[in-house]
Write a structure and sequence with these properties.
2 domains, seven-stranded parallel β-sheet, alpha/beta, Rossmann fold, 14 strands
Length: 438
């Protein structure tokens, strides 16, 4: 009865949301081209690849952050077992763009089937995986039910239960408990996540606390750093000038950084500011904010690889794809975006890895275990509110020795925490039998 009720409610909700999907498809043609994937129906070329006899593990990720974790796990599995091959499923077009860089020649990329019995059954008939791996907490009950009823081991990796989701999971433990207990193993990011999973009805013996896999995802980009240094030098950014970088900023945070920059220039006139917005489609608004604040603006997407020399105190608006890690490698002080708003924060591991003195605002719920670890070791600074975050940034900019010490601790902690992904890959490959078909 409960499954019939769930399927009815799911169908009603999906039909109600269809206008939103249609608008998204109109904006993002790539999503429309493969929309039938959501119903377990694939183009002929994909069907032929799925039926080519290759034994594959099904890995599911929602969007960009989860895809990065999934890609790191797949790469490690290939390293440990070179014959490993995958079906990688995503649910967003932004995730698809990231996933295209993660799949190998023997892998197949699809949009995840809807959590409806017919869609799931068609998908499973198409590629019959030997294991199913979910990244973070993308729990689709019908998918998990049909996978496990078919005797396919299922794993939840890098599992976390957010502060916002925890009460709902606890209230619905009679529903989520059986779903979680059908999983072979759950690899949780922290003890708190493990407790919340147990509160949701999961048997504690299924849960293994491993730490977060996100420490393994970040990698420096030395070639990109060299190219960006040449670009900055041509634009008049001296290699000796300290750089304040706003990484993955959200609306409102750009104005905040511009205020910090103006105040910091009084004591550090050589300081340069680079802003890398999270959503490039809003770069026009950021440019307006820069010019309104009285600073010249160099917009990277509209300049050649060797730009003309810019006026002093020009702010670089880095609205280009795939260059954030390169910029982190050149910056001394970093503010990580999405942390002044109630959105949960962007990835602070990346600047810490690059040896940056890193500051975040009060909202970092998306990286709770990471932040607890970094704060406990004095490897990052967190502001209690906007004013406190500003004060911490200004303090670092006025005290280079303190900033260097913070940056050194950050790089050491990140280096020390790497290694979770290889351990999880080893465990899954050891448990997910290939039955001699590999």
């Amino acid at each position: 009865m409960k499954w019939a009720l769930y399927n009815l409610l799911f169908a009603i909700a999906y039909v109600a949301m269809m206008p939103k999907f249609l608008v998204r498809m109109a904006r993002r043609g790539g999503y429309a081209n493969r929309f039938a994937d959501r119903f377990g129906r694939y183009p002929r070329a994909i069907r032929e690849r799925l039926a080519d006899g290759t034994v594959r593990i099904w890995v599911h990720a929602v969007s960009v952050g989860e895809v990065a974790v999934a890609g790191q796990l797949m790469a490690e599995m290939r390293r440990q077992r070179p014959s490993s091959a995958f079906v990688l499923s995503v649910t967003s077009s932004t995730g698809w763009a990231q996933a295209e860089r993660q799949v190998g020649p023997r892998d197949v990329l699809i949009y995840a089937p809807l959590d409806y019995p017919g869609c799931v059954r068609r998908a499973l008939r198409a590629f019959s995986p030997v294991a199913y791996v979910i990244t973070e907490t993308e729990l689709w009950p019908n998918v998990i039910r049909h996978v496990t009823e078919a005797g396919i081991p299922a794993y939840l990796v890098n599992a976390r239960i957010s502060d916002r989701s925890a009460p709902g999971y606890r209230r619905l433990r009679t529903w989520f408990g059986p779903v979680l207990n059908s999983l072979t193993r759950i690899y949780a990011q922290s003890d708190l996540d493990a407790r919340r999973l147990a509160d949701a009805g999961c048997d504690s013996e299924r849960i293994v606390v491993t730490g977060t896999m996100k420490f393994d995802v970040a990698h420096r980009a030395p070639e990109k750093e060299v190219a960006l240094r040449a670009y900055l030098t041509a634009a008049g950014f001296s290699p000796d000038a300290p750089i304040l970088l706003g990484g993955s900023t959200w609306p409102g945070e750009d104005a905040f950084l511009l205020d910090v920059y103006r105040k910091a220039l009084a004591k550090c006139p050589a300081l340069r500011l680079i802003i890398v917005p999270r959503h490039f489609e809003k770069a026009g608004d950021v440019e307006v904010a820069i010019r309104t604040a009285g600073f010249p603006c160099l917009r990277k997407s509209r300049t050649p690889e060797t730009p003309e020399r810019q006026p002093a105190q020009t702010v670089l608006l880095a609205d280009t794809t795939g260059e954030l890690m390169g910029f982190y490698g050149l910056a001394q002080t970093v503010f990580v975006g999405k942390s002044l708003t109630e959105e949960g924060g962007q990835n602070m591991i990346e600047p810490c890895l690059c040896g940056c003195a890193t500051v975040v605002g009060p909202h970092t719920e998306n990286f709770r275990p990471v932040m607890s670890d970094l704060l406990a070791h004095g490897a990052i600074l967190q502001g209690a509110d906007r004013a406190d975050t500003e004060a911490r940034l200004l303090g670092l900019l006025a005290n280079p020795p303190a900033a260097k010490a913070l940056a050194r601790r950050a790089a050491e902690i990140v280096a020390d925490r790497r290694g979770t992904t290889p351990a999880i890959a080893t465990a899954i490959l050891g448990e997910a039998a290939y039955d001699g078909r590999q």
